[in-house]
Structure to design on (430 residues):
């Protein structure tokens, strides 16, 4: 995990020490269940509860000799348990009963952190969309002026995209919140299924329905695809804000950390969209993690170990990056400076060309033949684009008389239908 792109709460969750604490919890729960079945002495379970979580440094020291993390963890854990009780630790279990069940618990908690960040982003987008619902600007298709819209409408689209991402994350959380305590090839050969039921229920997990030895890796792939999809939605926001911050556009500006901000070591005037650029770059990482997760789905027979080294990178990093990205995106949108005057200037910059579709619509309504009407309006538009003269004047030269010169209001008569949909989304917020 890269500290620069990892927030403390996510770093703590995926630390070695936190992982070993979760492993201890799984071992104790499994022993509690065994004690209920009369298979493990209650005194042994009490000794396990009293034992300290082994230090990561001690586990690493033992692993240098054993080359097996779970066995090294168990050895370190049992150093703090009397021998008579230590013999009952991990009874009937295999390594991945411990690893995957703990992992399911950790991934569910990590997804909760990411979901909370996504909800904050949705909240900010909804609030700012409502704030700027009437802030006129030009809509662009292919990067070229199209028709009038509002900045609030643009932000509303992003709010709904984040909302869809949250729905995908919720489904993915259900998929990964799964454990298994089923033995070496998943047949419960040496362990009662009641142990698995107790452990999973205590951790808020479902049980893998047909375990091999491991939890199915398509679950993790689903999670990282959902994280990558959220990242792509954030990238769309950040990309748009980058485009709107170009010098010749300058319709918005991202917040600066302080008055001491410096954008360039050589050019003192520079105010770069670095936060937006960073968010776009992180989305590329998330797509890479999702691809690697898909590669991990297919394992040999009941299991192999090819997935493990990959997961040690992609699961903590993917969730950390997604969490960081969503958190910083919310801060970016919340602090974004909006310049309505620049937006209106861009809308008016082409002398009325952005209203050409309304002109064509009215000509057709007056009985003009479509191809002839289109060509007349297009010819007038081309002269306006070349000369800078008002579109109404060049239309007149084509014999097109405007009863009422169109303006932005003509294009936003039904705009409130989107606002009503946004208000329904607003009801989802706390």
């Amino acid at each position: 995990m890269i500290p620069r792109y990892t927030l403390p709460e996510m770093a703590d969750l995926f630390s070695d020490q936190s992982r070993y604490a979760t492993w201890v919890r799984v071992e104790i729960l499994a022993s509690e269940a065994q004690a209920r079945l009369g298979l493990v002495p209650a005194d042994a379970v009490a000794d396990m509860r009293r034992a300290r979580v082994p230090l990561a440094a001690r586990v690493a020291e033992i692993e240098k000799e054993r080359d097996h993390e779970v066995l090294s963890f168990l050895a370190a854990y049992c150093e703090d348990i009397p021998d008579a009780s230590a013999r009952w630790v991990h009874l009937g279990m295999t390594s991945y009963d411990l690893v995957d069940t703990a992992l399911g618990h950790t991934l569910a908690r990590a997804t909760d952190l990411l979901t909370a960040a996504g909800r904050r982003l949705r909240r900010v987008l909804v609030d700012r969309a409502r704030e700027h619902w009437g802030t006129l600007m030009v809509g662009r298709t292919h990067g070229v002026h199209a028709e009038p819209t509002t900045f609030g409408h643009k932000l509303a689209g992003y709010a709904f995209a984040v909302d869809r991402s949250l729905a995908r994350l919720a489904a993915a959380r259900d998929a990964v919140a799964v454990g298994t305590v089923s033995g070496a090839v998943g047949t419960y050969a040496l362990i009662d299924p009641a142990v698995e039921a107790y452990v999973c229920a205590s951790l808020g997990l479902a049980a893998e329905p047909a375990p091999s030895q491991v939890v199915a890796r398509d679950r993790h792939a689903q999670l990282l695809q959902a994280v990558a999809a959220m990242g792509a939605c954030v990238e769309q926001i950040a990309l748009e804000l980058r485009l709107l911050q170009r010098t010749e556009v300058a319709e918005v500006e991202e917040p600066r950390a302080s008055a001491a901000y410096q954008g360039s070591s050589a050019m003192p005037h520079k105010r770069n969209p670095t936060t937006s650029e960073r968010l776009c770059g992180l989305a590329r990482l998330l797509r890479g993690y999702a691809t690697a997760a898909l590669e991990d789905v297919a394992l040999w027979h009941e299991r192999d170990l090819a997935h493990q080294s990959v997961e040690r990178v992609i699961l903590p990093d993917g969730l950390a990056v997604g969490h960081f990205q969503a958190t910083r995106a919310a801060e970016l949108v919340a602090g974004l400076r909006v310049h309505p005057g620049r937006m209106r200037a861009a809308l008016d910059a082409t002398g009325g060309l952005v209203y050409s579709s309304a002109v064509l619509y009215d000509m057709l309504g007056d009985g003009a033949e479509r191809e002839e009407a289109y060509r007349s309006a297009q010819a007038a538009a081309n002269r306006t684009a070349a000369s800078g003269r008002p579109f109404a004047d060049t239309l007149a030269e084509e014999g097109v008389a405007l009863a009422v010169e169109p303006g932005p209001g003509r294009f936003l008569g039904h705009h409130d239908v989107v606002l009503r949909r946004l208000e329904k989304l607003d009801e989802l917020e706390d």
